[in-house]
Amino acid sequence: MSERQRIDVWLFRARFARTRAAAARLVTEGGVRIVHDGVARRLEKASAEVAPGDALMFPLGGKLLAIKVKALGARRGPASEARSLYCELDADAFA
Known about the structure:
Blueprint: E1 5-6, H1 7-13, H2 20-28, E2 33-36, E3 39-42, E4 49-50, E5 55-60, E6 63-69, H3 79-83, E7 86-88, H4 91-94
Antiparallel strand pairs: 1-4, 2-3, 2-5, 5-6, 6-7
Helix pairs in contact: 1-2
């Protein structure tokens, strides 16, 4: 049984978006790419799911951010808790 979570919920709980609606908008506008089981694709729906081990790439604050999902969040906690949900990757290696 694999753990999975909606991408909009995960982005909100990992503090990449101030609201869940903003996270959903980032996804539906085509701003998020995912690598799951070695297959890269652009996410189109906020209901798409992520799992630990997935890599994500999306624009944030004027730069391109590449991260690896380490864990799924149970809540939107403090920043220190949110940082434990991911690790940063080299964006050049993502392509």
